[in-house]
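queue> pop job 88
queue> type: inverse folding (structure -> sequence)
queue> payload:
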């Protein structure tokens, strides 16, 4: 199968954004678009927060905070620290630079601008040429079903620090959500999809389950990169979630999850070289390579390997 000339990359979270940056260094804006999870979005302190869009935006602008692993580089915390001292909610750590982005987004949305157009305005001003497309302009909200009851995703992820045991997920608004027309148009001409190493339950599902997506992607070669390496998630709660859902926390189990829940979606699967002995257990074309991305070179190398993998898939 020839290497695709036009790619849609599906991403959510910090791990996905790392590979996204690598892809952006190889493919130009006419060859690559990003479809981003909005299930993590929420309104906080009166502002519309889009954590996965922001993680990708900061990564592509190479302004992500390397020390914290999230947020923006060179951040200061005067606002949130002062808010906390006044008795305000400070569990969601909004930096001062970050606050400016959320404020600008909220202003644009308040003026009737779509999330897609607001994102385009912000990314353009941050020097990003590629299209960062929210999977939908309609609200989709991930609800985590846990031993503390149902929790909005950020309450589970940040406020409760992923401590509650997970029993399932619900995607509120999914049934009525419309696929972003920009993504629909791109898929009509797209010849390859890469699912970046993102949590399959709360980062990828809210993208590919939007009505119309799977149908539009049906005949497009698609590969996914495992977010699980040697039984752990490099970033985020994916491994913990899998264990609590009685799913083995392995790359093989991630591949099986996609095959069971989205039959026919994946044509290939990428795992880390430390899991190479598990290749034979994956019942689709699979390759093992270094997928832990510590440097920009690592991000580019994994992106190159993913693109080359399309050449190795059966026609």
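queue> result:
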């Amino acid at each position: 199968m020839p290497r695709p000339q036009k790619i849609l990359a599906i991403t959510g979270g910090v791990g996905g954004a790392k590979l996204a940056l690598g892809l952006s260094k190889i493919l130009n804006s006419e060859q690559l678009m990003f479809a981003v999870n909005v299930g993590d979005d929420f309104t906080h302190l009166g502002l519309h927060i889009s954590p996965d869009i922001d993680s990708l935006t900061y990564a592509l602008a190479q302004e992500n905070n390397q020390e914290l692993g999230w947020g923006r580089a060179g951040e200061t915390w005067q606002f949130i620290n002062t808010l906390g001292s006044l008795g305000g909610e400070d569990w969601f750590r909004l930096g001062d630079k970050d606050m400016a982005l959320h404020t600008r987004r909220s202003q644009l949305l308040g003026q009737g601008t779509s999330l897609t157009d607001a994102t385009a305005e912000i990314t353009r001003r941050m020097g990003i040429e590629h299209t960062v497309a929210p999977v939908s302009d309609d609200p989709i909200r991930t609800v985590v079903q846990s031993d503390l009851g149902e929790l909005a995703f950020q309450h589970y992820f940040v406020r409760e620090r992923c401590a509650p045991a997970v029993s399932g997920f619900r995607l509120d608004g999914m049934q009525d959500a419309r696929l972003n027309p920009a993504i629909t148009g791109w898929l009509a001409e797209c010849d390859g999809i890469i699912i970046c190493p993102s949590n399959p339950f709360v980062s990828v599902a809210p993208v590919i389950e939007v009505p119309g997506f799977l149908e539009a992607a049906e005949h497009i070669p698609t590969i996914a990169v495992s977010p699980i390496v040697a039984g752990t998630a490099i970033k985020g709660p994916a491994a913990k979630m899998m264990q609590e859902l009685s799913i083995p926390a392995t790359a093989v189990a991630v591949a099986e999850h996609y095959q069971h829940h989205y039959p026919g979606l994946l044509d290939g699967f990428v795992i880390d070289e430390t899991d190479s002995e598990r290749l034979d257990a994956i019942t689709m074309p699979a390759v093992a390579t270094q997928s832990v991305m510590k440097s920009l070179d690592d991000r580019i190398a994994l992106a190159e390997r993913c693109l080359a993998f399309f050449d190795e898939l059966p026609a």
